[in-house]
Amino acid sequence: MKQFLTPALLGAALLLSGCQTAYYGAMEQVGYHKRDIMVDRVKDAKESQEDAQKQFSSALEEMKALLNHDGGDLEKAYNKAKDEYDAAQSAADDVSSRINKVEDVAEALFDEWQTEIGEISKADLRSKSQVKLRETRRNYDSLIRSMRKAESKMPPILTSMKDNMLYLKHNLNAQTIGAIKGEFSSLQTDISGLIKEMNRSIAESNKFIAAMEAAK
């Protein structure tokens, strides 16, 4: 049964997090194994993608409001759109960071699993464990490909947003706004594609989490 981490143990684990091997070892001592960490990190990555979906959609809406601006404080509308762009960039960074953490624990888990299989003396048990490892690895490979594919769609969108925001910043007037309206349709299409790709990745995450939890 898992033990709850006391503040002291949690603090010690966090101090060790710079060295992942030591970190995993410390967590295992309190009953929190690599597969548990992996499931939690996949959940975190999934949640970060859900947050990014919302943030990119919000950024799109603020840009739309700016491009359709018909009076009032133009600079205020620009600042709102800029804030949403900045938040979208932050959300994208968080997605990448969390995917990296999934990859890190997955590598540690699979290496440990393969090593321990070699320590099983009975051939039939060793074979069954090897089959389970291959199956889990296959599921993981599908998951990480899906996550990375969705992640890869964010930088081009952010670049387009940044280009438009900088262009507007230098000449914030109705004529400048009109000049970039033609690019907005393409941006809408790109964000729609990103959200669909993230939905596929989120579905893969849910499937992987369910399989890992069922195997406990």
Automatic annotation (TrEMBL):
Question: Which keywords describe this protein according to UniProt?
Answer: Coiled coil, Signal
The record ties this protein, via Pfam families, to:
DUF2959 (PF11172)
Q: Which residues form a coiled coil?
A: 42-98
Recorded hits in InterPro entries, A to Z, give: DUF2959 (IPR021342)
**Which stretch is the leader sequence?**
1-22
UniProt KW Transmembrane keyword: no
Q: What is this protein called?
A: DUF2959 family protein
Lineage at the top is: Bacteria, Pseudomonadati, Pseudomonadota, Gammaproteobacteria, Alteromonadales
